[in-house]
Write a structure and sequence with these properties.
Layout: H1 2-41, E1 42-46, E2 61-65, E3 79-83, E4 89-96, E5 101-105, E6 108-111, E7 114-115, E8 137-138, E9 143-147, E10 165-166, E11 172-179, E12 185-186
Antiparallel strand pairs: 1-2, 2-11, 3-4, 3-11, 4-9, 5-6, 5-8, 6-7, 9-10, 11-12
Length: about 190
């Protein structure tokens, strides 16, 4: 009887050890996968503030995809995420491309002399909200002029404190709203 008990106990000890080792391997593998996904493919973030209304609301959780710009360049109209010197991530829309001449007159944006038409903004830029840069402004190489969709409540490229966003500083493209569920969908 004692021999059977010892054999039974050894089996339990081995099975318990194998269970712990298998569990640790699974946890480590899952962590590596998450770190790879977060580092190179996708990341999630929460929208803070109202600068992207009506496209994005405060509290929205979004996915940022990173590979979009590994093989191509950002495009006019893309909603991008980039770090600001304040330590916060900013979410803005690309309006001006490298080499574009940007001007703001009577609340309207002009790109290379042509009025830029937009159907996603709340309202035109109010007088006094043109920012502190000199117009017309030419977008430098490898940089972008970005604006929030809520033009009268956004810190963006109109301000020297934000300025033009260099392509190397873009964290990724905001592509999918995941929360709240009634707003789930692609970000356009």
């Amino acid at each position: 009887m004692i021999k059977k008990y010892k054999k039974f106990k050894e089996n339990i000890d081995h099975r318990g050890l194998y269970f712990i080792v298998d569990s640790l391997e699974t946890i480590i593998f899952a962590l590596v996968v998450v770190l790879i996904l977060r580092g190179f493919l996708i990341e999630n973030t929460k929208v803070i503030g109202s600068s992207m209304l009506p496209t994005l609301q405060e509290g929205n959780n979004i996915f940022i995809t990173k590979p979009d710009y590994f093989f191509g360049s950002p495009k006019r109209g893309d909603v991008i995420v980039f770090p600001h010197s304040s330590g916060n991530l900013y979410i803005k829309r690309i309006i001006g491309m490298p080499g574009d001449e940007i001007d703001i007159k009577k609340g309207n944006i002009y790109i290379n002399g042509d009025k830029y038409e937009e159907d996603y903004i709340l309202q035109k830029i109010s007088t006094g909200r043109e920012g502190d840069i000199d117009y017309p402004a030419t977008v430098p190489d490898n940089s972008y002029f970005v604006l929030g969709d809520n033009r009268n409540n956004s810190s963006d490229s109109r301000l020297e404190s934000v300025g033009f966003v260099e392509e190397d500083n873009i964290t990724g493209k905001a592509t999918l709203r995941i929360w709240p569920l009634d707003g789930f969908g692609l970000i356009e």
